[in-house]
Amino acid sequence: MSTQPSTVLSTFENPRPGRDFTIRIDIPEFTCLCPMTGQPDFARLTLEYVPAALCVELKSLKLYMWTFRERGAFHEAVTNEILDHIAAAISPSFMRLRAEFNVRGGIYTQVIVEHRNSDWRAPELVNLP
Fold first, then answer.
1. 34 is known as an active-site residue
2. Where along the chain do its domains lie?
3. Among the options 34, 55, 84, 119, which is catalytic?
4. Catalytic site residue 55?
5. Which tens digit of pLDDT belongs to each residue from 44-73?
6. Do residues 99 and 45 lie in contact, with contact meaning Cβ atoms separated by under 8 Å?
7. Which string of b and e fits 7-38 if b means at least 16 CB within 10 Å?
8. Which one is catalytic: 41, 55, 84, 119?
9. Phi, psi of 38 (to 5 degrees)
10. Is the Cα torsion angle 80, 32, 62, 10 positive or negative in sign?
11. Of 13, 52, 82, 103, which is most buried with the most CB atoms under 10 A?
12. Helix, coil or strand: residue 111
């Protein structure tokens, strides 16, 4: 196989650093292992962020997500870990990660975590008629 899982998150410069904009990345095939049973857990992750100076490169993000495939992790822990790693790599103005785990034993789990740069203020919402 020509590519392997990797914990390295590559970045590139924000092409419009003077403008707040949202990047939304849908990751529909996230997998990790249940730390109690070793069975696979499947989730759809949605990463949303307002970049500051850097953006995360998508192939490296895909390879990073692959590193969890054979790891046991509680839903809450893995969601926070992923957000922490990506936020550390790019220092965004704002970042939100939503993890929607598939049913396990009749229970669905959603974990939503956020990172906010203390100097950043969200723009005022514009309501158009």
1. yes
2. 11-116
3. 34
4. no
5. 999 999 999 999 999 999 999 999 999 999
6. yes
7. eebbbeebeeeeeeeeeeeebeebebbeeeee
8. 41
9. 80, 0
10. positive
11. 82
12. strand
